[in-house]
């Protein structure tokens, strides 16, 4: 019996990769220095896995930005607009595809970004044309194998499987389905594989998480075609096929018939599938099974007793040498090392395992299965005691919170009147012009602002002086917004570290790490709160600064909150009760804050829910249950206010077509969405459905450093005006501006305001 993992975090224990990439983008370090940092991180990752007993270590799981973008470069899937960069600088091309590029010679937009299945990780969306060609372009995968080999480590290179790669992309023109491109793509994969085999590769891991989805017969046939072709050309290659995030479901028969060496199972998300596989008439007991027993997406300590029972079940059908012990998915989604945490509550800390500790858990489970397992029995007993302590801890349970959730009524999740009545009252109360302008909430978090928070937290800056500095920053942002003519202002969120962490710090039931960073996209890292117990709000969270900001202006100002589903999704959530129950606890806490903001004079309150699509189960048959409780939780948070109070929500980087009825059922007065990268394509869902409420399609891609021109914004708004009632259109960026710099932010927002003014003038001239 051996051990393996599917992938390891790549940002560095101290976010070294983030810092190096951002320094490279700012031209304060060279390409050579960036690549040196990357090489150091890869070496550290490989060596720690070797030290902690991982037998089959992955390579090519590292990326400077995103693994799907890496695959685009590997197979030469490079959109035409980047061809002018292609021959001059490979790294400039790579980052231009990810972030866009704007200088004196080149102005290209970035590729689209969306969520990686049901995670908060964002990937770059491949673009396909009807006559798409592919070519072996980047040799990153072979170079990384050679890097590890030089350290004496023969790795298992990781490739995103060709079918998943195609399904993750999008057609940029009509008249074909992207899966039809497989016969053009597969030869390039075969070239890459041949190069790897020539280097001595024994195993290749093909990630095909599309096998967790509801696939069509055509898509399943593509899987069969792919792996038959690989096996026929390279019969000695050991194919390690990895599916994760859910069961194989209807795809199980297809997977079991493939000519592969190892089949990976996510036994955290779908623990029942082992029985289905072992009892299937298609199961071949010569195949190896990789048992994903360790949770690759959450930070709770494994229960060794439960995991060993699973292993024993597998051993009744398979010899030990045909079993791998592994994590459920790549450890990309968990922080680096719990040992770095010096200030975490010791009782809570004993319940946790970060990536390094998960490596230890994998090795320990394997070692406990050995005949000579006595040296490891003490670890088994420690694990048993920690899990027992968690079950009985007084830190977790709050009877008042449980009672309040159990007493929820249907009326708690409905506004007093329907949208048409509310809209009329809001128009009278707020008196906005056509195409009202606003932002999504945050303004740039400069290095200076971040330093204030750090000094305040360390006690180096008094509370009084800290508040003076934040107040001045808020006032400056209010004056800027007034001067350029925005219609609805925001306070800028300068006091907030993260849109989830900030609220978690003010709610009971959350704990926080110092170094628990995970990658969200590119160099963007988040530090999810640890939601360990019942959630409640004992004091106001945002009222002080929101009320202060509103006192500075006659214009309406939005109170800014994060919604219950997003707080749930973007935390490391307790796994000892249904997620629905936890979400309702958060919803009631947010509801209390919404009511308090209204009492203090805020007439517009935004409850952000960018994660509502992300939480959707991968299998459609499970959607109705999730959507029912997720939408209800949002409505609980938003429904305690008067008709005149306008509720906004924001969602970004999501496909809405298949859940648009549920989005409408959330009944927010105004929804803002990301649409600029897709050039308003995402708006189609709202148009075809005839979305009844007001909508702000984003016109400024804030994940790119480039500033949209006035003409670009006008073009996007013209598209929106053709398909939406003009009385329903808001004008805004795609998302918050926290990660941007002030100069580009100011130019972009000025263009947004001027574009809205131009549209209003056109309407006057038409009359």
Question: Can you offer a commentary on this structure?
Answer:
The chain has 767 residues and is α/β, with parallel strands linked by helices. Among the domains are: 1-40 and 261-393, Alpha-Beta Barrel (TIM Barrel), CATH 3.20.20.210; 419-766, TIM Barrel (Alpha-Beta Barrel), CATH 3.20.20. It is built from 28 helices and 24 strands. Strands 1-14-13-12-11-10-8-2 form an eight-stranded parallel sheet. Strands 19-21-22-23-24 form a five-stranded parallel sheet. A three-stranded mixed sheet has the order 15-18-20. The longest helix has 25 residues, at 742-766. The chain is globular. The termini are far apart. The model has no long low-confidence stretch (mean pLDDT 95). Catalyzes the transfer of a methyl group from 5-methyltetrahydrofolate to homocysteine resulting in methionine formation.
The CATH topology assignment of the domain at 419-766 is TIM Barrel
Anisotropy-based shape: globular
Percent helix, as a range, is 40-55%
Question: Which sequence of strands runs across the widest sheet?
Answer: 1-14-13-12-11-10-8-2
First-residue to last-residue Cα separation: 78 Å
Which architecture of the domain at 419-766 would the CATH scheme give at its second level? Answer: Alpha-Beta Barrel
- What proportion of the residues form beta strands (DSSP E)? 5-15%
